[in-house]
From TrEMBL:
This is MAPEG family protein. One of its GO terms (molecular function) is glutathione transferase activity. It comes from Trichoderma asperellum (strain ATCC 204424 / CBS 433.97 / NBRC 101777). Keywords: Membrane, Transmembrane, Transmembrane helix. It comes from the Eukaryota. Its main location: membrane. It is a multi-pass membrane protein. It is found in: Membrane. GO terms for cellular component: endoplasmic reticulum; membrane; nuclear envelope. It holds the Pfam family MAPEG. The chain crosses the membrane at residues 12-30, 76-103, 123-147.
Amino acid sequence: MPFAFEISNSYGFVLAAATSAFFVNVLHMARTGKFRKASGVTYPNAYASHEQASKDPNAYKFNCAQRAHNNYTENLLPAVGSLLIAGLNFPVAAAALGASWSFGRVVYLYGYTSDAGPKGRTFGAYFAGLADIALKFMAAYTSYLVITSN
């Protein structure tokens, strides 16, 4: 049996929140590139060696930036996917959570690449993580509604 969606005008906010995630990725790339250049770690090396990072603060910061970026890309698809699905039923709430997730990921990046190192990522991780889990539950509920609708 066919199923039709009627998308709210508010879904544009969901699309804007999803788009913000793409710009956060660009920020990650720029910050990682900055630290790569400062560290002298050349391509194709993904990370500075343990020996290099323990001797050179720039190499250590590059590793932190690279790990933050990798973690971001690991979480990008599930977060944006949840946002787009949840936004079908809860456009304004999903958009707010999606924007919160993006903001939290920026805080995560700057915390991780601060002098605090890995410990600096904690607040951003919790902030983005709460938004992410809420989006996942909202997406699951939206999926349930679609499956059980007549």
